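Appendix B. One record, verbatim.
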Amino acid sequence: MKQRSFDYFPYLLLAPAVLLSVLIVAWPFVETFRLSFTNATMGPNVRFVGLLNYKKMFDDGFLQVIARTFVWMAVSVSLKMLLGLLGAVLLNAAVPGRTLARLLVMPPWIVPIAISAFIWSWLYNGQYGMISGVAQNLGILAGPFEFLAFRNSAFMAAIVVDVWVGIPLVSLYLLAAMQSVPSDLHEAAWTDGAGRFYRFRRITLPLIAPSIATISLLSAIWTFNSFEIIWILTEGGPRDATTTMIIDTYKSAISRFKFGEGSARAVMIVLFLAIFSLAYFLLLRRITASKENS
């Protein structure tokens, strides 16, 4: 029996993608990991310093930055998922003008994030911003209020913008998942007298649960690494109130030209995201297994 020769053609087709992944992902990460153990700056004298950058990072109050980042991610992603799910339900409803509503929900996601952030910074301005002006006319505020000038209000203002940008993608993603649910299940439940909320809770939600898990994980990663919104609105201020891990990394590596310290912070970001993603998938697998056994 003639032995079949090894087929190299599929590997040749995959080679460009693998090479591109190595060049734009693997090599930069390896180089960042190497720099994290050096005192690299703008100067030519680069030497190995071991774990000094990591030690110095935590001595500089990095734990507060980590906590702030996870609060930022948790609040923003929770609001995106809740409002995005509500938006998907409304967009899926059989009402006149549904197609137009689906088109109108797109602009926050289509408009470049930088432009959206600049527009919101004007809205938040206490002197000529619309939000402060409307609040004064309604009697909510006694005078101009600078939303981006105070720690708590700046943090919440940045979250509002991040949620506003992220809701359309979540809504459309979950809308597509809802439309994939077989209509026969809803019709059978409706025939048996099941109400709208019962059908949504017992049929729609369980079937779109994998989609909810996927988009929530992606949203968490994007929110964790959100840079443009915070930087344009506050640049991490006031008094570091909106400084997340990605902002702190940028300040160290780019603003202060401490590439070694910035690389150490970047490695920590990758580590945290890897641990978070692994824990998320393990939890999702356990929940799925418990549902199958019940």
